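User: Modeling request: complex.
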Amino acid sequence: MNYDINKIRSYFPVLKQQVYNKPLVYLDNAATTQKTVKVLMAQEKLHNDYYGNIHRAAHYMADKSTADFEETRDKVQKFINAGAREEIIFTKGTTESVNLVAASFCEQFIKSGDEIIVSEMEHHSNIVPWQIQAINKGAKIVKLPFSDSGILQSGALQNLISSKTKLVAVTHVSNVLGTINPVKQIIETAHSKNIPVFIDGAQAVQHIPVDVQELDADFYAFSAHKMYGPNGVGVLYGKRKWLTEMPPYQGGGEMIAEVSFDKTTFSEIPFKFEAGTPNITSVIAFGASIDMLQDIGLVNIWEWEHELLEYATAGLKEIEGMTIYGEAPEKSSVISFNIEGVHSFDLGTMLDKMGIAVRTGHHCADPVMQHYNIPGTVRASFGLYNTKEEIDQFLHALKKVVQMFA
Amino acid sequence: MTIEKVQQDIIEEFSVYEDWMDKYSYLIELGNELADLPPEEKNDQNLIKGCQSRVWLVAEKKDGKIYFRGESDAVIVKGLVALLLRVVSGRKPKEIIENELHFIDDLGLKQHLSPTRSNGLLAMVKQIRLYAVAYDRMEKEGGTQNG
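Assistant: Request completed. Predicted assembly structure:
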């Protein structure tokens, strides 16, 4: 494989440091990734050279900022192969993208007695916004379950769909189990009954190539900060027909066509859903992280990370008392586990003191913890800059920690 | 011995450990040594739920003093609980109210008191204070002596 790991790591000088006098091994990429220097450089250039508010002024600074801001929209469109640039809406993160669709879609299309199907393996942010709307509207959330091995029972979808079903919300990749769900098939099933599908892509777009037209997704959401990009920017892709029919989510500047105290008319998409001054700096810098992902290539990243996943899984399985949660054949580079007799918090705390950053706890996915009847797990998640040497360090540290609690 | 003196003692005990691993080994030792609560006391009423680990706290008043017992499902947290109990248990409510609990910070273990997504320890410290304030008020109002 032609994967220049040294060059890639050079984009992330933050990785080359010691914590607690140990070399840092950053394995919490599913929570957030480190930012490439290219993102930081883009932010600096913007503020040094041409920062201005976008879309609303006739001067050089504003024009240049606007052009770069809109260029990122084009990059995102290409990145997920959306049909039109207007179908890309900038939000502050995946969570806001879900909330936008939940509020706006439900306002227009959900009434009392209707049902929304949500999978059991969702992050809280793809459950709670739907629950809030369901309570408002007197609608019901229906659970699409997964099996103990972490595979979504997508075959059950057919039977869960009824005349009351108005939407299906499912994650592309589970943040705990790593399962890559067969979203294309799920969308096909739902569409055969004319039901739209919302896909949470927060754990997918940085690992696998995504083509929203090929998937035929109605909505697809993700965050820049999990893509080696800046904080505070998310994307909502929505099919034009839905975005056009849905009412605005928030009111303010930018999203209007004309305002009087009697009547306000709204802008066209995407601006209808981008009220107020957006996160100009981060959107512009986001372009740089997309460029990096495109340059390396998602297929290459996938292959590299898959090798790391298999290597780490094999190593973990050698540890006595090991339970790995989520062993779907189609899996991204996320491993959740527990070791018998050692609390996940104790494991995570000691790993930290040995320079290894992992996540512990319920990972904002209580229903997944409830499925396995556990309070939490340790989660190691690998990114494009991780190496087998780092996994060796992780496994070595883990074995040492287990001995401390024996 | 005053609350302040016990805190200073703990800080001194830890000062021999230069390495983080040793500090934590000692915490693990303390956690393992702390007696478990009887299962019936590990109920929802005594539970302080953290995002990463759970803590149970029981308070009893005797002869004008509050006696605390506690446990956690994570050993490191249990070690920290053991230290906290050593500082605050068997004290008059007023002493607890008037003294700052600074030793965790001084030991460089402040990360375990982070306000969100924490391990229940910060909530435990708050709960200890609430018990002290409540018992202090009861005392002033001439309330029940056995809490």
